[in-house]
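Need C-alpha cells for this chain, all 556 residues.
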Amino acid sequence: MSIETVYTNGKVVTVDREFSLAAAFAVRDGVFTAVGGNDEVSELAGAGARVVDLGGQMVLPGFVDAHAHSVYRGIGDAAEPSLADAVSVADIVARIGEAAAHANPGAWIVTSPIGEPPDFFGLPEGLAEGRWPTRDDLDAVAADNPVCVPTSAYWPHPSVFNSAALTRLGVTRDTPEEPGVRIVRDAAGEPTGVIHGLTFYNPSRLFGRLMSLLPGTPGRTTRDAIARALTENIAVGVTSVYEGHGNTFTADLRALRDAGRLACRVVATYEVPVGRPDVDMGTWLSSLTDAAGEGSGDDLLKVVGVTVSLDGPTHFGRSAMSRPYLGTDGELGNGSSRLSTVDLADLGRLAVRHNLRLNVVASGDAGCGIAVDALEAVHRETPLTGRRWVAQHFHHATREQIGRLAAMGFAAQVCAGVDYARGEEVYVKRLPGDLWEHVSPLRWWIDAGVPIALASDGAHYDPMFQLWAALRRIDARSGRSLLTPAKTVTREEAIRAYTAGGAAVLGSPGKIGSIETGKLADFVVLDRDILDCPVDEIRRTRVISTVLGGAVVHEI
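Here are the C-alpha cells for all 556 residues:
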C-alpha cells in the first residue's frame, strides 16, 4: 500500500451534489480517501502522510471532454506538409514543392487544410494573393505527384488538386456536378483544381472516389499522433475523454493502452455503419460483445456502447431542419437525416436486445425530432430510463424535445463553443427568424433536469476556453455576444458540465467527475480562482498541475 498524500490549504471545488467547497483532501492508491477541512483530513490521514500545501490555490476535478475527437485532432495535426500557418499561395506552393522533392514519383501528397485550426478564419482573403491556389500553382512544383489539399472538418472551404490528382479522380471539363459538389472552372470551362463540397458530411460519388485513392495513414503514425493529442489534453487538465462519435480507432487505442502510452482516460464507442447495405445491422450489433452492458476494459480505456449519426453540421448545410436555411453557396435547403424514424426505432430495439448503450448524434430540429420520436417508440415498449443513453450535439433541439428526452432518462452532450466559430456567419445570417437565439440552449437542458456535458468537439480543447465560451457566447468574427436566456448558465453550472456532467455522459459517474471519497483521484490545480475572477480571465487561466489517479502527470 502506498503512502497517503494530504493536500491542504486549498480552495477545493468538489463538484459533489451540493457543489461544496473544502480545504483539504487525501489520496492513497489512486483514489480520494478523505475530503474536508485541514485538521479533519490531516487527522484521518495519520502521522506518516506526505503533505502538500496548496497555498490557497483552486482545485477542481479533472476535466472530462465528452465529445473530444482527440483522435482526429491528433491525426489532423500530423499531416505533412502542414499549411496551418501559411500566409500566401506562394508559401503553400513552396511547402508542397518541398514535399514533392522528397516524395517518390506518383506518390500522393496530402497536406493539412489551408488555414489556422481549429477555426480557419479569414480565407481566402487572408492569404496575400486573396485567392485559393489552383492546379496551375501546384503543377509548377509537383507535376509528377498527385496533390490533395483537403477541406477542413470545421469550415466548408474548398479542396484543391493539381492536374495529376484531377486525372486520377477523373475530373475533366465534361465532369457533371453532383448535389453539394461544385467544380470551379476557368473561362474556357476547364477545372481550376478548386472543388467545393468534398467532405464526409456530403457522401458524393466524387468524394467516395477520392477516399478510395488516398493512401491510408500507417498504424504507427496514427498511434503516435493519438498519443500526442492525449498528452496535450493532460497539459490543459483534461483527464478523461469520450471518443463517442466517428470512432474507428479502437484497435489503435487498445495498442496504446497495452504499450502504456495512453496519457488520459478514454471511453470509446463503436460507430454504427449507416448506409452500408452490405452490413446486416442485427448481426453486426450482436458481434459487439466487448461493448455490451458495462463494456470492456479498465479505468484507463473502456469500450462501451454504439453511436449512430443522423445528420451533419449546419455550417455545411447538412443539419436536418424543419424550416429552410441558407447552405454553403447561399442556396435554400433543409438538410437531411440518414435514417428515418422507423429505421432509428428498429436500431434502438436492436440496441436494447443486445444490451448496448446507444448514443444518438443529431443537429437540426428535424433530426432531433426523428431521434426523439424513434426513441419514444422504443421507450413505450421497453423503458429506457436507467439505461444511460446519450443525446449528442442536438444543437437545434426544441424545449419540447428536450423535455421528452428528460422523461426517458437521457444525458446530453452539448457544445457552447459553436457560437464562437459560427455564430454570426451561420446561425444569425443563415437560419430563419430567431433560431440563433437558442442554438445549443444549455439553460433549457438544465431546467429540464437533463445531466449535460460540455465538450470541445475537437476544437479549442482547453476547458478554460470552453467554460468562458459557455458563459459569454461570443462570436469571434464580430466580437458580439450572442448570449440569450436560453443559453445562460452560471459558473457553477458550466464547471459541473465539464466535470460531473461529463462523467454522466461517459457512463462513469461513480468513478470520476467530482472530488469525493472513493472516486479516482483525478484533479487539477489552477493559477486563479475561476469562481471569483472576471469572466474574461477564465479564458486565460492556466493549469498548474494535473493529477491522474493520484500521480502528477503535468506540472508547470
